[in-house]
Amino acid sequence: MPMTTPTPERVRQTNTPTVLIADRNAALLEAVSGHLRTRGVAVETAASGVECLRKLRSWDGGIAVLDLDLPWGGGDGVLAVLREEPDLAPFGAVLATSNDSPHPERLTRPVVGLLERPYTPEALFDAVCRALDGETRQRVRAPACER
Description:
By secondary structure, the chain is α/β, with parallel strands linked by helices. It is 37% helix and 18% strand. It has a single domain (8-137), classed as 3-Layer(aba) Sandwich (Rossmann fold). It has helices at 8-14, 26-38, 49-56, 74-84, 121-136, and strands spanning 18-22, 43-46, 62-67, 93-97, 111-116. A five-stranded parallel sheet has the order 2-1-3-4-5, with helices on both faces. Helix 2 links the parallel strand 1 (18-22) and strand 2 (43-46). The longest helix is centred in the C-terminal third of the chain and has 16 residues, at 121-136.
């Protein structure tokens, strides 16, 4: 099966970006992905850095929410790949971290937001909407975020 590279143009065709949530906590993944889906957001999930990269290479593009402590590759490993291949997450990444002061290099593109762990489903929804608001204003709609 050929790999597809997401592009902003492909995301424009679907009219709304997908959110890929990569987190080591299965219960949290289930809760937050279910909450986002009830709010009308398209969601993919991954439980490891390897699974996250596999999904990033095969999705239609959107925004990634990364747990920095992902097993098998970690959030920093995924960020390194996103910096080399920015089209994998054309709308950037929101970092989920329990660290109060992330390293400054983590706060550069593709990082478009920070989310402190533990977070609630609504806090994740708000962080994604804030990030998408800045990124999609001229490119695509984020209907679930419209209030």
